[in-house]
Description:
The complex is a heterodimer of chains A (294) and B (425). By secondary structure, chain A is an alpha/beta fold. Chain A has a domain at 3-7 and 44-140 and 193-289: Rossmann fold. Chain A is built from eleven helices and eleven strands. A seven-stranded mixed beta sheet of chain A has the order 1-11-10-4-9-8-7, with helices on both faces. Chain A is globular and about 60 Å long. Chain A starts with a helix and ends in a 5-residue tail after the last helix. Chain B folds into three domains: 9-55; 59-193, no CATH class; 204-421, MetI-like fold. Chain B contains 16 helices and three strands. Chain B is extended, with a radius of gyration of 31 Å. Chain A: This is Phosphate ABC transporter ATP-binding protein, PhoT family. Chain A: Keywords: ATP-binding, Nucleotide-binding, Phosphate transport, Transport. Chain A: One of its GO terms (molecular function) is phosphate transmembrane transporter activity. Chain A: One of its GO terms (cellular component) is membrane.
Amino acid sequence: MDLTADMTNQPFPTQLFGDDAIDTAEEKAKPSSRQTVGDPFVENPRMICRDVYVYYAEKCAINNVSIDVGRNEVLAMIGPSGCGKSTFLRCLNRMNDTVGTCRVEGDIRLDDMNIYDPSVDVVPLRASVGMVFQKPNPFPKSIFDNVAYGPKIHGLVSNKTELAEIVETSLTKAGLWNEVKDRLHEPGTGLSGGQQQRLCIARAIAVSPEVILMDEPCSALDPIATAKVEELIAELREQFSIVIVTHAMQQAARVSQRTAYFHLGDLIEVGPTDRIFTNPRHQLTEDYITGRFG
Amino acid sequence: MQNTPQQSPITLRINAGLKKRYNTEKRFKRMGISAIVIAMTFLVFLFGSIISNGYTAFQQTYIQLDVSFDQTFFTGENLAAANFPGLVKKTLYSMFPDVTSRNDKKLLTQLVSSNAAFRLMGMVTKDPKLIGTTQKIWVLADDDVDMLIKGHYDRNVAESNRRINDKQLAWIDALAANGKITKKFNTQFFTSGDSREPEQAGIWGATRGSIYTLFIALALSFPIGVAAAIYLEEFAPNNGWTDLIEININNLAAVPSIIFGLLGLAIFINFWGMPRSTPLVGGLVLTLVTLPTIIIAGRAALKSVPPSIREAALGIGASKIQMVTHHVLPLAMPGMLTGTIIGMARALGETAPLLMIGMIAFIVDIPGSVTDPATVLPVQIFLWADSPERAFTEKTSAAIIMLLAFLMLMNGLAVYFRNKFERKW
């Protein structure tokens, strides 16, 4: 994509927030400030979100959030419970449409396409923005059918050999192939929790999405399974953009390149992960990552 | 309890209340057990009374006649037009040559069912070579003879209070002494339709009527009910109209079924001009009766499918209808089948609405299709229970046994299908 064309899509100049001068403790943004600090925008982004508001009935769940999702990066979203990070994540592939009272305002673009435009069909959108949920939720079908389901319904394959190839590649990418290749036709629900979650990741990547959204993918897993999934996320970054919501700050620090901190519906701070964890520019961010609340 | 003296005050207080807690538990257990015992007692009593009344109906008394198919009887071209009742009478007179008076002859012929002549006619038309031979043929005894043989009539009451008088009693004893009267398995009961004569009445007509009626009801109410449940649960917008529809469906489930019968009479028969007394109209009415049950059960089954499965399907880009047909419906199917079976079981036992559309008519012929006049098992039970003849008492109980067997067969099938569709998690 042409870089200059991309820049024109950004209504705000990046420099507005990219102020490197504020990096000493005295100059931290005050806790009362709800202005986003740090670097929410990147060059040549995959997804662009501008002035996003989300309401549940009359309650405002997301308040004026603007952020970019870069290519081949892992963007971690952290924040205390109820801060709206999952809500925001679910806006990115319009999963919030299923909640009747939910209303989204603002501009969310995937490769220049406004995904909330009335002409946009959610079916292809969700094929290009895949999702992995908090609780592993394989279909009560065989392992093979779980992975094959996406390619089948989207008509991505023309025969069984191709389908089998996609299933094998996806399971291999998800690091599950060697564990399940001898029992592809056993139910996916019979796997262990960590394997189930990797099966769900394989299911998501089987339709070759551009972005994968992960909503606390490791919160139901033990440390060993978590390590495997994190390893997998690092590998998947080479092909996909990944947005991950997590409660574990160590996890955010381990897997992500950029981190966004949400607080009560506001996007407080965005920046490179190592800087957020070493030198946060907002008092709220510092309080959260040092464990003063959350 | 521990015997150590160093018990903390907390432990002592907990221990003090323990006995009361356990007593409550014991009391509740005892009440539960007694409830089950009472329920089982009534069930045993019910089954015991039905079976003890009804099992004799599965046997019927037959009398052996030595019929000589004399050439003189078959002079005409048409064999079926021959005087078969006369042949039966002649045979009986020859078996009891000492019966001479007109009155006694009449009493004698009453021992054999009117069905005997038809049986002989059937044999001759099927095999004309019988003419000119003498055959030992078992024919149905009259229902009063049957009752006597089965011990339902008391021989010791005054003759005037007896359906069988002393002379007939002597003839029956003579037949029994010669081994010419016996009880056989009652195939007639399972193969024929209703009759005014208890010994000829059968359940097959009503069973066929029930099968046709339920088939129509199932074929209509299952797809309509499932489709309605899916639409209301998954697609319908959440507004005042859907609330109104939901309230109405819940109310319809509680409407007395005879009202649906009146509706069927007014709409299906009087307005649409469908044939009355038929399984077609009966099935349509029972569809109306069962639909609310199926819709309510279907919606409950759809609600119980975990939302994570819906999210998984939507998250991968399935359209809403794909989500429903590929994932939600298969998981909800066992629950929907259970609801359907509850509805069908209700439909099977339903009598009142069918009275309104004329399925109470006395129908001898076995229905060949859904547009033939028919009756159904519960209506047949009602008709027989209403008949004065003593022999219909056991027929009524036998019909109830058939109805229960039908019900168990249906429920067995339902359990089989439900287990087949049930998925492991």
